[in-house]
């Protein structure tokens, strides 16, 4: 940013080199792109992701439904991390339940799932199934779709900013390398005559 501020001061300075002006303009355009381009990229990515996620949420809500299942066999297993305790006390056990339920066409289905709540053989509980009667997860809600879209927009904006900054740093590094090469060339030309009087240098 100091280079950008100095761009206006260098406009009529005879000591300002062309490389200094180029670096200042490069930093200025990189800053403009970050201020203007990064939010636009994030917004576009969020809108595109939100539309896709919303369509997915609507499809899941249309194809999935809650079905009553009957527990047949229950195996109580300890928590994954039995040493970790929550604020309310020890973590609940995991109940591995083999259950039976009816599909949309009335066919019988059997499957195994893990529940956090205590279940006894013969008790009924609700599960999510798809159009074929297979176990599935809860459908995505519009709020969940919006949250995923927001994260996608933030990720796209952060990635764009990182790419712009990496490009700016690479361009500045290349400009410095060229400047040092020119300095070495100039020093090789005038170095032997340095400090001598009466020379054209």
TrEMBL record:
<keyword id="KW-0812">Transmembrane</keyword>
<dbReference type="InterPro" id="IPR039708">
    <property type="entry name" value="MT1774/Rv1733c-like"/>
</dbReference>
<feature type="region of interest" description="Disordered">
    <location>
        <begin position="79"/>
        <end position="114"/>
    </location>
</feature>
<keyword id="KW-0472">Membrane</keyword>
<feature type="transmembrane region" description="Helical">
    <location>
        <begin position="145"/>
        <end position="164"/>
    </location>
</feature>
<protein>
    <recommendedName>
        <fullName>Integral membrane protein</fullName>
    </recommendedName>
</protein>
<keyword id="KW-1133">Transmembrane helix</keyword>
<feature type="compositionally biased region" description="Polar residues">
    <location>
        <begin position="85"/>
        <end position="98"/>
    </location>
</feature>
<feature type="transmembrane region" description="Helical">
    <location>
        <begin position="24"/>
        <end position="45"/>
    </location>
</feature>
């Amino acid at each position: 940013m100091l280079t950008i501020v100095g761009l206006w001061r260098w406009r009529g300075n005879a000591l300002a080199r062309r490389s200094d002006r180029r670096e200042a303009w490069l930093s200025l355009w990189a800053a403009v792109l970050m201020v203007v381009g990064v939010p636009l990229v994030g917004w576009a990515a969020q809108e595109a992701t939100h539309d896709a996620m919303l369509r997915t949420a609507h499809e899941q809500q249309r194809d999935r439904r809650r079905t009553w299942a009957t527990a047949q066999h229950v195996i109580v297993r300890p928590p994954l991390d039995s040493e970790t305790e929550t604020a309310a006390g020890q973590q609940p056990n995991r109940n591995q339940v083999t259950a039976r339920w009816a599909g949309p066409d009335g066919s019988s289905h059997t499957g195994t799932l893990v529940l956090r709540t205590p279940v006894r053989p013969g008790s009924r509980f609700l599960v999510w199934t798809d159009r074929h009667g297979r176990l599935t997860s809860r459908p995505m809600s519009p709020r969940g779709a919006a949250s995923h879209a927001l994260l996608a927009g933030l990720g796209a904006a952060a990635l764009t900013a990182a790419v712009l900054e990496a490009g700016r740093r690479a361009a500045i590094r290349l400009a410095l390398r060229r400047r040092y090469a020119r300095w070495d060339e100039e020093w090789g030309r005038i170095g032997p005559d340095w400090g001598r009087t009466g020379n054209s240098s």
